[in-house]
């Protein structure tokens, strides 16, 4: 009997999901070895653009992503307190990840990284570049494909702080 590989659960924020939708690679998240992705219902609600919402819904129906709901009263209180200084999606990601000891996928560079470190510990936030690097390392993308993805995302005003994935891979 073979053992299943351990999967790290990652609670995904809208910005990362939308980046992968722009790339036409939302399904890639399902293929990343060692990861499984969760979407808080608040994040799902933040995706308003019709084609993006359709892509997200298709990924949920295909089992690439699973929707998670906050139901415990104490966690709902924590969520409402976080919403005073973070958006609903970021707040939901923090609460759900904190409840289970999971990671977060978010490209927020403002308050979320510090709040995640305080609540979850260091190294618990993955970004779009981190996930693309994971795809390169898993052989699911070449550096050239990743650089093309980087260029496309930069056209959509998502900037990465390096010249090429070849420099950071």
Description:
The protein has 169 residues and is an alpha/beta fold. It has one domain: 5'-nuclease (Rossmann fold, 3-Layer(aba) Sandwich). It contains ten helices and five strands. The chain has a five-stranded parallel beta sheet. The protein starts with 7 loop residues before the first strand and ends with a helix. The model has no long low-confidence stretch (mean pLDDT 93).
Q: Work out the strand percent.
A: 5-15%
**Strand adjacency order, main sheet:** 3-2-1-4-5
Average per-residue pLDDT, rounded, comes to 93
Number of helices: 10
Shape descriptor reads globular
CATH class: Alpha Beta
Number of E-state strands = 5
Quaternary status of these chains? single chain
* Helix share, percent: 40-55%
The radius of gyration computed from the alpha-carbon positions, rounded to a whole number of angstroms, is 16 Å
Task: Give start-end ranges of low-pLDDT stretches.
Answer: none
CATH-defined architecture: 3-Layer(aba) Sandwich
**Which secondary-structure class do the elements indicate?**
alpha/beta
Largest sheet: 5 strands, parallel
Q: Keywords, please?
A:
alpha/beta; 5 strands; 10 helices
Gist of the model:
The chain is α/β, with parallel strands linked by helices and 169 residues long. Helix content is 54%, strand content 12%. The chain starts with 7 loop residues before the first strand and ends with a helix.
């Amino acid at each position: 009997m073979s053992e299943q590989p351990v999967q790290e659960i990652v609670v995904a924020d809208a910005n990362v999901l939308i980046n992968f939708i722009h790339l036409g690679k939302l399904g890639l998240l399902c293929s990343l070895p060692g990861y499984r992705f969760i979407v808080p219902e608040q994040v799902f609600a933040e995706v308003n653009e019709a084609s993006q919402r359709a892509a997200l819904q298709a990924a949920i129906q295909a089992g690439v992503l699973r929707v998670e709901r906050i139901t415990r009263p104490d966690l709902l209180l924590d969520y409402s307190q976080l919403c005073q200084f973070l958006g609903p999606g970021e707040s939901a990601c923090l609460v759900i990840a904190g409840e289970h000891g999971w990671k977060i996928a978010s490209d927020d560079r403002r308050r979320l990284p510090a709040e995640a470190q305080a609540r979850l510990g260091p190294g618990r936030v993955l970004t779009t570049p981190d996930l693309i690097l994971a795809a390169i390392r898993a052989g699911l993308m070449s550096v050239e494909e990743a650089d093309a993805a980087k260029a496309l995302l930069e056209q959509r005003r998502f900037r990465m702080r390096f010249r090429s994935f070849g420099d950071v891979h």
